[in-house]
Amino acid sequence: MAQFDTGPIRDFAAEWIQYGDGLYELAQSMKDQMDGMQWSGKAAVAAREGFGSGEQSVRSSMLAAADIAWKTGEALNIYADEVDKAVKEINKQRLVA
Fold first, then answer.
1. How many CA atoms are closer than 13 Å to the CA of 47, on its beta-carbon side?
2. What separation in angstroms does the CA of 93 have from each of 2, 3, 74, 84, 89?
3. Which site in 2, 15, 45, 47 is 20 to 30 Å from 56, CA atoms measured?
4. HSE-up of residue 51 (Cα within 13 Å, Cβ side)
5. Domain-by-domain residue ranges, the chain?
6. Alpha-carbon distances, residue 22 vs 14, 18, 25, 78, 84 (angstroms)
């Protein structure tokens, strides 16, 4: 009977998803801090634009990294599901043969 423990793969997937959650929460916290600052002038405008405006902003980069981490975790879970299916199929075929 074929056996393969996908637990470590699923644990690794969970770590990637947790990392993505952490990045998202940090980006949101930083946005809240920026929005709450009583700061004005050219420096304030530049800081806000650098952090939160456009595709190349710090916040956009953090959110993109969070998305990649989530997708990596999801892909690892799908891979583990496919390995489990393959092991079941191998064992099923051995019983039939």
1. 13
2. 11, 14, 29, 14, 6
3. 15
4. 16
5. 8-96
6. 12, 6, 5, 22, 29
Cα–Cα distance for residue pair 13/20, rounded to 1 Å = 11
Q: What is the pLDDT along the chain (97 residues), one digit of tens a residue?
A: 889 999 999 999 999 999 999 999 999 999 999 888 888 899 988 888 889 878 889 999 999 999 999 999 999 999 999 999 999 999 999 887 6
For residue 12 the two structure tokens come to 């690794």
pTM: 0.84
The conformational region for residue 54 under phi > 0 = left, psi -120 to 50 = alpha, else beta, is left
- Say how far apart CA 71 and CA 19 lie, in whole Å: 11
